[in-house]
């Protein structure tokens, strides 16, 4: 019997691949909004699939292949299509997850360092349709990793800036973010403490000119180390 962690990893792989659909996908998205570890797992699968896709070289088949297909189709008697079979989503999901894990992850298990620990999910003030950010911490490098999940594109003359806000205190800038890929921010000052609010504001290109947020706060969440 598969453990719960293996089951969640398989669902995360299905979600990232796009094979998790319907009510199951909606339920998974709801759980992901409140589970930083699950959201980080999805982000890792999305990154793995992106790397795999970038390695694929398109191959154009010769013209003779298409001619052979046309010839074969012309010789085949017309057949009524068979009734569609009900997909076995669970089996497909496990097969995809297991195969892709073996292809992408197993060769690196012996040398791959520990993954950053998810510590917060920054939700959108405008609703889940604007995506969210997963915040992970790597204590060995004193850095934060911010991974966008379905974040909308940003205008060329605007930047997103991350702020750490202590209870009752002033915001401190932690750096600018990339909406297209994970951003690693090495912290020059001390790591924000648990209970701090992490917020992402919309700023002019290059960041706030005043050292404090000047635009709307688009995402926020509480740090839980």
UniProtKB/TrEMBL annotation:
Subcellular location per the Swiss-Prot or TrEMBL entry: Cell membrane; Membrane
Taxonomic superkingdom: Bacteria
GO biological process per UniProt: regulation of translation
GO molecular function ontology, one term from the record: sigma factor antagonist activity
Keywords: Cell membrane, Membrane, Transmembrane, Transmembrane helix
Any one annotated GO CC term: plasma membrane
Pfam family, one: RskA_C
Chain ranges passing through the membrane: 91-111
Record has Isomerase as a keyword: no
Membrane topology: Single-pass membrane protein
Domain called Anti-sigma K factor RskA C-terminal: residue spans: 95-217
Identification of the protein by name: Regulator of SigK
Native organism: Rahnella sikkimica
Upper classification of the organism: Bacteria, Pseudomonadati, Pseudomonadota, Gammaproteobacteria, Enterobacterales
């Amino acid at each position: 019997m598969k453990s719960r962690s293996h089951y969640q990893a398989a669902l995360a792989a299905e979600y990232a691949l796009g094979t998790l659909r319907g009510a199951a996908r909606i339920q998974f998205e709801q759980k992901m909004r409140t589970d930083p570890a699950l959201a980080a797992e999805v982000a890792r699968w999305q990154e793995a699939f992106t790397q795999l896709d970038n390695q694929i070289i398109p191959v154009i088949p010769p013209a003779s292949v298409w001619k052979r297909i046309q010839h074969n189709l012309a010789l085949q008697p017309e057949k009524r299509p068979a009734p569609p079979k009900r997909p076995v989503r669970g089996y497909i999901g496990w097969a995809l997850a297991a195969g892709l894990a073996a292809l992408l992850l197993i060769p690196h298990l012996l040398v791959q360092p520990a993954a950053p620990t998810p510590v917060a999910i920054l939700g959108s003030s405008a609703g889940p349709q604007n995506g969210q950010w997963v915040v992970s911490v790597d204590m060995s490098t004193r850095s934060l990793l911010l991974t966008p999940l379905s974040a909308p594109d940003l205008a060329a003359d605007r930047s997103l800036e991350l702020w750490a806000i202590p209870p009752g205190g002033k915001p401190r800038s932690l750096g600018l973010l990339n909406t297209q890929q994970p951003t690693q921010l090495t912290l020059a000052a001390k790591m924000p403490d648990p209970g701090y609010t992490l917020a992402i504001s919309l700023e002019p290109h290059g960041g706030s000119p005043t050292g404090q947020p000047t635009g709307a706060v688009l995402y926020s969440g509480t740090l839980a180390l």
